[in-house]
Design goal:
single chain; two-stranded antiparallel ribbon; 7 helices; Rossmann fold; 204 residues; five-stranded parallel β-sheet; alpha/beta; 12% strand; 7 strands
């Protein structure tokens, strides 16, 4: 299959935010604001929220057709260079009957998201569009104390440079610490990282 590949991003580009799964921005607006701030201040993007992306999560759940319309609008707008999922969830499959993947394929641009956003990636894959399974606005881009250096480095390498990605080096540290998103006092508190323990393999 021949895949249509989007161009790389640069500061000043307009990036759209959609909520194809869960209405996370409406549920935890402070967390969404953290991710939006990273996109604007760290990368220099102009963030364009689609009409229904910030609605209450119950409204988002009840309106899969409107979620599909947001995707269509974001891809069809020639001024928008990328489409970022606000967050994952468990409901994007209900968007698919309303989604025309041909709109995405005819307007190739970066599409980024993970978890339940995989449903949209698969539709785009079937239409021959290359997409990117990676961090969402509220998780990965938004991070307590600011984006992790590892995440930022590969975000720039994969999405913001025209050169081949090359070898993806593993992270040197990881975390499973959970900090409550809705607690504003934790926004600047870094999650504790654990160093990766690498096993030495003896030569035979």
């Amino acid at each position: 299959m021949h895949f249509r590949k989007p161009g790389h991003l640069k500061p000043g580009d307009a990036v759209a935010v959609v909520s194809p799964s869960w209405g996370g921005p409406g549920a935890v607006p402070r967390r969404y604001a953290m991710g939006k701030r990273e996109l604007v201040q760290r990368f220099g993007f102009r963030v364009v929220e689609m009409p229904h992306a910030l609605k209450d999560p119950e409204w988002v759940r009840a309106h899969p057709k409107e979620r599909a319309e947001d995707l269509h609008h974001a891809f069809a707008d020639p001024g928008i260079k990328a489409v970022f999922a606000s967050i994952g969830g468990s409901d994007a499959i209900r968007v698919l009957p309303h989604l025309d993947p041909g709109v995405m394929a005819a307007n190739p641009k970066v599409f980024l998201g993970y978890s339940d956003t995989a449903m949209i990636h698969l539709e785009a894959y079937g239409a021959g569009l290359q997409t990117f399974y990676g961090p969402s606005v509220m998780s990965g881009i938004a991070e307590n104390g600011g984006m992790f250096e590892y995440t930022e480095r590969w975000f720039r390498q994969v999405l913001m440079t025209p050169e081949p990605v090359g070898r993806l080096e593993p992270a040197e540290a990881w975390t499973e610490e959970r900090l409550e998103w809705a607690d504003p006092s934790l926004e600047h508190q870094r999650r504790a990282l654990q160093k990766v323990q690498r096993l030495a393999v003896a030569a035979r």
